[in-house]
């Protein structure tokens, strides 16, 4: 059900849409989770219920712009699936559409989204129902299962096309490739979300560890890419792969930009900043110590005060 | 990178034409290739067997021209001006651009004086115009001109064709880079472990101090009727050690 699309449209997805969809899914899942926990040990039909509640499917609409052959998906909003008729709530959709039109007059309803691991047959009905708003809607599918081995985003975009299967023309979902496009504001907020620290991460050690772990994973990715390049070029040198001169040129220009930060001025600045930071932490420690010392002295005074003069004047320690 | 994409089509066309046309027509083809404004890569054409056959024939000068453009500089051309046919202004320009690329290979900061000598340009204004119009707008280099220090800083320059020995150097640099980044990864991991162990020690120390205070409080609460003397003395002996953390 997933050959590649041939419509020639380029899709651009904004991260806001992905954050919205995952936020919607997380909200619904946490709201349903107390009953899911209790029936997780069920059997038979209640098992199916448990899995349904573990991963509820959420639905919504995506809106954006279509300029020529480029489809840019900017935003999304939630919709309810009517379980009896298996269609999306039409009146709500239209109301939301009007409201969005007032704020963003250029945006159209481009399609709809849902969560799950694969597109199903019932999705086709919803897809067809949307065809009267947009002749060729897109279907954005987010896979909420966390897979640590997967390196790409778990988002797939499907379009519908008419293919002849077994002699019967049917519309089926086909994959399309997409790119991520960000606006400056989006980039800042996505960066912020990616660097969420645990809310009680007050201790300096955990914050330092989190920061270092971030740098560590970034360098690890760089390392793996350089290794791929290295092995590829070694293979070319040995003659296993035909030489690609364009690649050689690009790699040589890349290597020429190394070392990127190796000059007199850089060392000076770096050491100066390092010394400044050390001085500041030294100053902070000394201030800490003096305030502790002050407390000790006060306590000592109070303690020995009561001891030496009962109800008398103060016997000052210092 | 963009230069490669721009050149890829031109290279393909020229390679196709060179492999299909007769040896006599290769000469003009090479002239055309070396004058093309956006083409800076010649090793594909050099690698063609038909071109290699030019060696030793009357047209071998064209092969030399191609080799000059692939690996040589303006200085090389001036030294060998007798062997190589007169170059057209387009070709001269291209050769100067390629010279800048070669200079950028060795240093990231190119002084104006070196550039003026290498490119045969006498005043700074002409040099800067050449750098800006021909090199930066063509996209083969990206950099900053520093007029006060009279130098040209080049963080990025497009690659020239590889001389046979340069591949080994490239591999060495790549493996050094790999080793450095691996060492860096290891040291970062060590730092993370150090930070965790230091915080563990700190917590333990704090806990021990708290426990000591608790013990003393308990033993003192037994002697409720104890004198102020004992209380003051014991507290004073405990607090100085507990508050210097």
UniProtKB/TrEMBL annotation, chain A:
<dbReference type="GO" id="GO:0010387">
    <property type="term" value="P:COP9 signalosome assembly"/>
</dbReference>
<keyword id="KW-0736">Signalosome</keyword>
<keyword id="KW-0607">Phytochrome signaling pathway</keyword>
<protein>
    <recommendedName>
        <fullName>COP9 signalosome complex subunit 6</fullName>
    </recommendedName>
</protein>
<dbReference type="InterPro" id="IPR000555">
    <property type="entry name" value="JAMM/MPN+_dom"/>
</dbReference>
<dbReference type="GO" id="GO:0005737">
    <property type="term" value="C:cytoplasm"/>
</dbReference>
<dbReference type="Pfam" id="PF01398">
    <property type="entry name" value="JAB"/>
</dbReference>
<dbReference type="GO" id="GO:0008180">
    <property type="term" value="C:COP9 signalosome"/>
</dbReference>
<comment type="function">
    <text>Component of the COP9 signalosome complex (CSN), a complex involved in various cellular and developmental processes such as photomorphogenesis and auxin and jasmonate responses. The CSN complex is an essential regulator of the ubiquitin (Ubl) conjugation pathway by mediating the deneddylation of the cullin subunits of SCF-type E3 ligase complexes, leading to decrease the Ubl ligase activity of SCF. It is involved in repression of photomorphogenesis in darkness by regulating the activity of COP1-containing Ubl ligase complexes.</text>
</comment>
<comment type="similarity">
    <text>Belongs to the peptidase M67A family. CSN6 subfamily.</text>
</comment>
<dbReference type="GO" id="GO:0008237">
    <property type="term" value="F:metallopeptidase activity"/>
</dbReference>
<dbReference type="InterPro" id="IPR033859">
    <property type="entry name" value="MPN_CSN6"/>
</dbReference>
<dbReference type="Pfam" id="PF13012">
    <property type="entry name" value="MitMem_reg"/>
</dbReference>
<feature type="domain" description="MPN">
    <location>
        <begin position="30"/>
        <end position="164"/>
    </location>
</feature>
<dbReference type="GO" id="GO:0000338">
    <property type="term" value="P:protein deneddylation"/>
</dbReference>
<keyword id="KW-0539">Nucleus</keyword>
<keyword id="KW-0963">Cytoplasm</keyword>
<dbReference type="InterPro" id="IPR024969">
    <property type="entry name" value="EIF3F/CSN6-like_C"/>
</dbReference>
<dbReference type="InterPro" id="IPR037518">
    <property type="entry name" value="MPN"/>
</dbReference>
<dbReference type="GO" id="GO:0009585">
    <property type="term" value="P:red, far-red light phototransduction"/>
</dbReference>
UniProtKB/TrEMBL annotation, chain B:
<dbReference type="InterPro" id="IPR000717">
    <property type="entry name" value="PCI_dom"/>
</dbReference>
<protein>
    <submittedName>
        <fullName>Proteasome component (PCI) domain</fullName>
    </submittedName>
</protein>
<comment type="similarity">
    <text>Belongs to the CSN7/EIF3M family. CSN7 subfamily.</text>
</comment>
<dbReference type="GO" id="GO:0008180">
    <property type="term" value="C:COP9 signalosome"/>
</dbReference>
<dbReference type="Pfam" id="PF01399">
    <property type="entry name" value="PCI"/>
</dbReference>
<keyword id="KW-0647">Proteasome</keyword>
<feature type="domain" description="PCI">
    <location>
        <begin position="1"/>
        <end position="159"/>
    </location>
</feature>
<keyword id="KW-0736">Signalosome</keyword>
<dbReference type="InterPro" id="IPR045237">
    <property type="entry name" value="COPS7/eIF3m"/>
</dbReference>
<dbReference type="GO" id="GO:0000502">
    <property type="term" value="C:proteasome complex"/>
</dbReference>
